[in-house]
Specification:
The protein has 189 residues and is of the alpha+beta class. It has a single domain, classed as Histidine kinase-like ATPase, C-terminal domain (Heat Shock Protein 90, 2-Layer Sandwich), CATH 3.30.565. The protein is built from 6 helices and 6 strands. A 6-stranded mixed sheet has the order 3-4-2-1-5-6. It is globular and about 45 Å long. About 3% of the residues have low confidence.
Length: 189
């Protein structure tokens, strides 16, 4: 079960990478007490039938994980959004990619905490494969972003421990700066 917003972001980003995406874009926007997340990719996408079935927890395409009989990520997301009186949508086109959007009131009693965003970004950037990932974070208008290709260009091997430590420190410091500039992070319960 996903316990934090960061867990959802990692799971959904991993879905994009596993769908063969060469580009994944993740935007986490916090405006006032509302949290919005956009994740889009140019992966294999889904036709209308597969898109409808993707919302069913007892469906998995059987391709990414041959032995898995269920696909709970989207179901967990839908449940969490429903509990928080939020909204979400997913669009996809076979051969083009998938876009997912969700938003909710961050102070809702059932809203998950942000979690360890720095570790989540490191996990997403460190996923295996040849892809670029742009992660952007905005808090009441202030923002930062990081791209996987820039990390690789600057540090080299994305799986190197020193690279991952530097990336985590960059995100942690960027988060701290956002929070300091805006007072308290409103998405924390």
């Amino acid at each position: 079960m996903h316990r934090t917003l960061s867990d959802y972001i990692v799971d959904l980003t991993q879905n994009s990478v596993e769908a063969g995406s060469s580009v994944v874009i993740v935007d986490l926007i916090e405006q006032g007490f509302y949290i919005k997340v956009y994740i889009s990719d140019n992966g294999s996408g889904m036709d209308a039938e597969a898109l409808a079935r993707a919302r069913d927890p007892f469906f998995t395409d059987g391709v990414k994980h041959e032995k898995r009989k269920v696909g709970l990520g989207i179901s967990f997301l839908a449940q969490f959004i429903a509990q928080c009186d939020g909204k979400w949508d997913m669009t996809s086109e076979a051969g083009v990619g998938t876009s997912l959007y969700f938003e909710y009131y961050g102070k809702h009693p059932d809203a998950p905490p942000l979690g360890n965003l720095a570790s989540a970004v490191v996990c997403c950037m460190g996923l295996p494969g040849s892809f670029d990932l742009k992660f952007s974070r905005s808090l009441d208008g202030d923002s930062y972003s990081v791209m996987r290709s820039e990390v690789i260009e600057t540090f080299g091997d994305i799986s190197d421990a020193e690279t991952l430590i530097a990336l985590r420190e960059f995100v942690r410091l960027s988060e701290n700066e956002l929070i300091i500039n805006k007072g308290t992070c409103k998405c924390q319960n």
